[in-house]
C-alpha cells in the first residue's frame, strides 16, 4: 500500500505531498528525502545498464520502525507524466505548490492501485 506520494523541487522543498493518514504528512518529509537519496544512488550505480534491462523495481530503499519504503520506477513514470501536464499549464507558476485537481486524482488512483 502506498502511504505517501511526494513531489520534491530541485531545491529540496515539497511541491506536493499526500499521505494516508494526513496527520503523518510531516513524518514522511524526512522519509521521502532519505528515500530519494537512495533512489539516486541506485540509479547512478546501475547507470545505462538499467535503461537497457528495463528494471522497474528498485527494491527496499529505506526501512523505518513503522514502514518499509520500496520503489517502482513505473510509478515514477506515471507521476512524472502527470507532473509534466501540471508544468504545461499556463496558469501554473513553477516552484508553487501543486494544487491541480487532475494531479491529485492521479495520485489518489496510484495510492488505491498500490494498496
Automatic annotation (TrEMBL):
One of its GO terms (biological process) is endoplasmic reticulum to Golgi vesicle-mediated transport. It is found in: Cytoplasm, Perinuclear region. Its main location: cytoplasm. Pfam families: Sedlin_N (PF04628). Gene3D superfamilies: 3.30.450.70. The keyword Transport applies. It comes from the Eukaryota. InterPro entries: Longin-like_dom_sf, Sedlin, TRAPPC2L. Keywords: ER-Golgi transport, Transport. GO terms for cellular component: perinuclear region of cytoplasm. Belongs to the TRAPP small subunits family. Sedlin subfamily. This is Trafficking protein particle complex subunit 2-like protein.
Amino acid at each position: 500500500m502506498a502511504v505517501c506520494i511526494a513531489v520534491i523541487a530541485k531545491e529540496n522543498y515539497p511541491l506536493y505531498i499526500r499521505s494516508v493518514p494526513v496527520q503523518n504528512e510531516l513524518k514522511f518529509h524526512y522519509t521521502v528525502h532519505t528515500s530519494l537519496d537512495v533512489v539516486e544512488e541506485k540509479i547512478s550505480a546501475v547507470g545505462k545498464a538499467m535503461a537497457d534491462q528495463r528494471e522497474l523495481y528498485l527494491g527496499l530503499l529505506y526501512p523505518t520502525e513503522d514502514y518499509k519504503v520500496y520503489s517502482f520506477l513505473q510509478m515514477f513514470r506515471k507521476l512524472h507524466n502527470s507532473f509534466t501536464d501540471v508544468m504545461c499549464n499556463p496558469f501554473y507558476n513553477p516552484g508553487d505548490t501543486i494544487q491541480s485537481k487532475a494531479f491529485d486524482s492521479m495520485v489518489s488512483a496510484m495510492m488505491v492501485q498500490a494498496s
